[in-house]
Specification:
Helices cover about 0% and strands about 35% of the residues. With about 120 residues, the chain is mainly β. It has a domain at about 5-80: Immunoglobulin-like, CATH 2.60.40. The strands form two sheets. Strands 1-8-7-3-4 form a five-stranded mixed sheet, with no helix packed on it. A three-stranded antiparallel sheet has the order 2-6-5, with no helix packed on it. Strand 5 and strand 6 (about 55-60) form a beta hairpin.
Length: about 120
């Protein structure tokens, strides 16, 4: 798996790639691959590369800073020969921390406070 299982400080916009020893049946991958961000399913696209031996998941949005990303490939994934792949799971942590993100203005009052002149 890339990034490596247990990796830390992984960039938030990282694609996840799983490598297999044999060509995979593309029609069985999408339903077998699950990616979660702190337990919440992540939407994204799945493509196969390198003679259908590399499964790449690209999240629709960047992962959240500091979150634990878990990747699961169930045994419903099959090789091109129809043989089921053994299930796999791995995880990594995204760089940053929500507590370390910069604060931003939520609203700005463009009106001046009236002054009284004597």
């Amino acid at each position: 798996m890339r990034p490596g299982n247990g990796a830390t400080n992984v960039p938030a916009n990282t694609a996840v790639t799983l490598f297999t020893s044999a060509a995979m049946n593309p029609s069985t991958i999408t339903g077998a691959l699950y990616v979660t961000d702190n337990g919440v399913p992540v939407l994204g696209t799945v493509q196969l590369f390198s003679n259908a031996q590399a499964i790449e998941f690209t999240p629709a949005n960047s992962f959240n800073p500091g979150d634990l990303i878990q990747v699961f490939l169930s045994s419903t994934a099959q090789g091109a020969n129809g043989v089921a792949l053994g299930s796999f799971s791995g995880q990594f942590t995204v760089t940053g921390s929500p507590a370390n993100t910069a604060a931003g203005a939520q609203a700005v009052n463009h009106f001046r406070t009236p002054r009284t002149y004597r």
